[in-house]
From TrEMBL:
Residues 53-223 form the Calcineurin-like phosphoesterase domain. GO terms for cellular component: membrane. Pfam families: Metallophos (PF00149). Coiled coil: none annotated. One of its GO terms (biological process) is lipid A biosynthetic process. Signal peptide: none annotated. This is Metallophosphoesterase. GO terms for molecular function: metal ion binding; UDP-2,3-diacylglucosamine hydrolase activity. PANTHER family: PHOSPHODIESTERASE YAEI (PTHR31302:SF31), TRANSMEMBRANE PROTEIN WITH METALLOPHOSPHOESTERASE DOMAIN-RELATED (PTHR31302). Keywords: Hydrolase, Metal-binding.
């Protein structure tokens, strides 16, 4: 008599495969379904004319596509109705074969929605200095303001704030330092309200927090990649276990930084590709500045 598989064993096998399929579908959704997070930053120092200014921050795209030609991403940004868009580094991936056309397409689409500002991340510089300069030129031609250790004023009805941006430390050895940039800004205005774009969250404590910016915008950590309960993520992009400063608002830990604050984006892409996200959907961050 031929052996027959126990119906219960067959049921268990079907359940196991079904659970595996559900897990695969969840991970796919968790890595492709955009999440828009709306947050508020309140400061008594904010000039009244900028009360309600809406900023969309996008970070760590790593050449990702959300829908054909990134249409889902652009739709999410449009829906946020931003006044400004900040791109805080790793727009392209170090393993990408065609980073320039991708960056140019993203820059053109975003700058058509709102004024867009960009700083480099570590992945851009992995392509070499010449490629970075080509990328910056492509972005400028697309309408993006590239901030390479520079600052620019933003004026409304006679009141001014400043937007500053720092190139990634992997850039030129003789580039303007963050401290030199801050000194130039303070030489122009004694007590400015200013926003700082700087890719690496790991450099906020101990360095960027000392520059005096009212709010710093960072990325780099990918939200800790796997966001487990009661943690800031399991591991960051530098492979540090249980990292901190990976998602949301944080105050500087240094006692002499006078309440310096940073917002860290969880980012959008994955790098390398196998470093999939878990409980950590790609983020479109919308920060509204409020005077208070």
């Amino acid at each position: 008599m031929a052996n027959r598989r126990c119906p219960r064993s067959q049921l268990h096998a079907v359940m196991r495969w079904g659970l595996l399929a559900l897990l695969v579908l969840f991970v796919y959704w968790d890595n492709t379904a955009l999440r828009t997070d709306s947050l508020t930053y309140t400061s008594t120092a904010l000039p009244a004319e900028f009360d309600g200014l809406r900023i969309v921050q996008l970070s760590d795209l790593h050449n990702r596509e959300f829908g054909k030609n990134n249409q889902r991403l652009y739709a999410a940004v449009k829906q946020a109705v931003p006044d400004l868009i900040f791109l805080t580094g790793d727009l392209v991936d170090e393993y990408a074969e065609a980073p320039i056309p991708y960056a140019k397409a993203v820059g053109k689409a975003l700058s058509a929605i709102a004024p867009t500002y960009y700083v480099t991340g570590n992945h851009e510089w992995a392509h070499g200095n010449a490629a970075v300069e080509e990328l910056k030129t492509a972005l400028r031609e697309s309408g993006v303001t590239v901030l390479s250790n520079q600052f620019v004023p933003l004026e409304r009805n006679g009141q001014t704030i400043f937007i500053a941006g720092i190139d990634d430390p992997n850039g030129y050895a003789d580039q303007t330092t963050p401290e030199e940039l801050a000194a130039k800004l303070y030489a122009q205005q004694e007590a400015p309200f200013w926003l700082l774009l700087a890719h690496r969250n790991t450099l906020f404590n101990g360095r960027y927090c000392r520059l005096g910016a009212d709010l710093t915008f960072c990325g780099h950590a990918h939200g800790g990649i796997w966001r487990l309960p009661f943690t800031d993520g399991l591991v960051d992009t530098n492979l540090n276990l249980l990292p901190s400063f990976t998602s949301g608002f944080y105050h500087c830990n240094d006692v002499d930084c006078e309440g310096a604050e940073v917002f860290v984006s969880r980012g959008l892409g994955n790098s390398p590709k196998w470093a999939f996200r878990l409980f950590n959907r790609p983020q479109v961050a919308v920060i509204t500045l409020k005077k208070g």
